[in-house]
Specification:
The chain is an alpha+beta fold. It has three domains: 1-103 and 176-215 and 378-432, Nucleotidyltransferase, domain 5, CATH 3.30.420; 110-174, no CATH class; 255-320, 2-Layer Sandwich (Nucleotidyltransferase, domain 5). The protein contains twelve helices and 19 strands. The strands form six sheets. Strands 3-2-1-4-12 form a five-stranded mixed sheet, sandwiched between helices. A hairpin with a 5-residue loop joins strand 9 and strand 10 (159-162).
Length: 432
């Protein structure tokens, strides 16, 4: 029986290749979290929209939640999910062979020029009316709501924070079918989760979820850049004043680095990923001359000699890739709207677990950074100590669960376009 002094929630991360779930218990008296269970399951990569991907995703979500419920001794019925499907294709309940593209849900939705002295001023009511008109006319483009603040996406894919009461609409450009695609992807995710006999409690952007888990309240207030080097993309989120200020994404992740290893040494992609995380380092100075053996890319191993290289040779490939990645990150941050001269930086994600990544990032980004660290979950267990047993790869799922407790701050208002998504309206009404 659930005590009135504690609450339970489940966060599910849906990412290319993996589905993860975390069960958190929240103590009302101490305002702290306790991790009851965390589990993961391999899922489809969702990159090509091949038949069976949706079924495999449903099975993975069901299996991971069933396992998490067994470990936590809870019957899981409601979950919260992340909504970042960068680089994914998801098709659900469609007979057409043309898949629904779900590249980031927060990507290039509205191109808004905030400059110019003679700009027109629009009130929040005007923006809401524009939003309704877009859907009624079935045109592209949308306004992204985040609590009482608004964010707009520019051409580079960055979100720009705008004042709801003073926003220029003079140079508003609507990108065709972007808003409808967003709505379709959300409905697709709802359908997939419901097929796993679960109900959606709410959606949260991946950057918001990871920030809730990895950043302290002080870091979100003073100004911090969160760099999430994921499998298929590198996400960038800037926090300032306690809120998400801007976010963007670069199509360069750990899988692309593994692809370079695979291409250069004629091994499979899975073998490239294995050696990257087991033996890779981002600087040749950290590598020795010890030999490494890798499986050949094709054919029977008995007929092909194993690929032999030195660890320093591997480091040359990895170092070049990470230098290119952080150079692109530096350029992207300079283009994103923020007012922090020397922000803190927190690195996380699968790609941040490679040896030497912090020193390489400092070399490329350090001149404009006040401090830099690797992200680790900031969850506390009973007794006030950090939950060190929670691996960083569960940061997104745990952050989604935390956001479930703070849904009034992170979910859009009920009168936004999200209310047109099934099941959201009932969830928002229960909050009153």
């Amino acid at each position: 029986m659930q005590s009135r002094f504690e609450q339970f929630t489940v966060g599910v991360e849906i990412s290319p290749g993996w589905v993860r779930a975390v069960v958190l218990r929240f103590f009302n008296t101490s305002r702290s979290f306790d991790v009851l269970a965390c589990t993961e399951q391999e899922g489809p990569h969702l990159e090509e929209g091949i038949p069976g991907d949706v079924r495999r995703l449903t099975e993975a979500i069901g299996a991971v939640c069933e396992e998490a419920g067994r470990k936590a001794r809870r019957d899981i019925q409601h979950v919260y999910c992340n909504v970042d499907t960068q680089g994914c294709t998801l098709e659900y309940g469609r007979t057409s062979t043309r898949p629904v593209r779900g590249q980031s849900l927060l990507r290039r939705l509205v191109d808004l020029d905030l400059g110019g002295e003679d700009r027109q001023i629009a009130t929040r009511r005007d923006i809401e009316q524009l939003e309704r008109d877009i859907f009624r006319q079935k045109r592209g483009g949308e306004v992204v709501f985040h609590s009482d603040r608004m964010f707009y996406s520019n051409d580079e894919g960055s979100l720009i924070r705008g004042d709801p009461e003073r926003t220029s609409t003079r140079s508003l450009t609507l990108h065709s079918s972007a808003a409808l695609a967003r709505k379709s992807v959300l409905n697709n995710l709802i359908g997939v989760v419901r097929d796993a006999s679960l109900e959606i409690g709410g959606f949260f952007p991946t950057a918001v979820a990871v920030g809730q888990c990895l950043l302290t309240d002080d870091e979100r207030k003073i100004g911090t850049v969160l760099i999430d080097i994921g499998p298929s993309a590198c996400g960038i989120a800037i926090y300032q004043g306690g809120h998400l200020r801007a976010m963007s994404s670069i199509d360069f992740g750990a899988r692309k680095i593994a692809e370079r290893i695979a291409q250069r040494h004629a091994v499979s992609l899975s073998e490239g990923e294995r050696v990257l995380f087991s033996y890779g380092c981002t600087s040749v100075d950290l590598a020795d001359q010890s030999p490494l053996e890798m499986k050949p890319v094709c054919g029977d191993e008995r007929d092909h000699k194993r690929v032999k290289i030195k660890r320093q040779t591997l480091a040359e490939t990895v170092q070049s890739a990470y230098q290119q990645l952080f150079e692109r990150v530096r350029r992207q941050i300079s283009q994103m709207p923020h007012e922090i001269e020397h922000p803190m930086m927190v690195l996380t994600g699968a790609g941040a677990q490679v040896e030497g990544v912090l020193s390489t990032a400092e070399d490329r980004l350090g001149s404009s950074v006040s401090n830099m660290r690797l992200g680790s979950p900031q969850l506390k267990i009973v007794g006030g100590r950090f939950a060190r047993n929670l691996d960083v790869r569960y940061a997104c799922a745990a952050g989604v669960a935390i956001c479930g407790f703070k849904k009034r701050e992170t979910l859009p208002p009920p009168d936004s376009v999200w209310s047109s998504v099934p099941y959201y309206k009932n969830f928002a009404g229960a909050e009153q």
